[in-house]
Specification:
Layout: H1 6-24, H2 28-44, H3 56-62, E1 66-69, H4 74-83, E2 91-94, H5 99-108, E3 117-120, E4 123-126, H6 130-138
Length: 139
């Protein structure tokens, strides 16, 4: 459980350190800006930025497109942010929480746990472009 919070907490800790350094040098504006930027990065990379985790077996049985992801993955974050309101139309499986999900990704990614891996209509794509996923979710 703590592993999924390492990246967001690191961003917040770095932000606090940079903001404190800016305050020491007399730049209140710089401290506020850097603090807010790093807190926003921490929030974006946190598990809270993604829809609820769905177990792989439940996701596969739902008939929805399945997106396998993991916290801290910049490509997963890019995909999630590009989908905005459409993200809820897919089942999101966190491979760090679900061994079956990790196995499903390894099965289509030549033994690697490369995410995001998207399965729509039985067709799997490893790290597809966000535009491709958006188009496939709309159809």
């Amino acid at each position: 459980m703590t592993r999924i919070w390492l990246v967001p907490l690191a961003f917040v800790a770095i932000g606090v350190a940079v903001a404190a350094n800016q305050l020491r040098s007399g730049s209140t504006t710089g401290a506020v800006v850097f603090g807010l930027v790093f807190v926003a990065l921490g929030a974006a990379f946190s598990p809270l930025a993604f829809p609820r985790h769905v177990p792989a077996a439940e996701a596969q049985a739902s008939g929805k497109p399945v997106i396998y992801w993991r916290p801290g993955c910049q490509y997963c974050l890019r995909l999630r942010l590009s989908l905005l309101g459409r993200a809820r139309h897919a089942a999101w499986v966190n491979i760090w929480r679900d061994p079956d999900g990790a196995a499903a990704v390894r099965a289509v990614a030549d033994g690697n746990e490369t995410v995001p891996t998207v399965v729509i209509g039985g067709h799997a794509q490893v790290n597809p472009s966000p535009a491709t996923v958006r188009r496939r979710l709309q159809s």
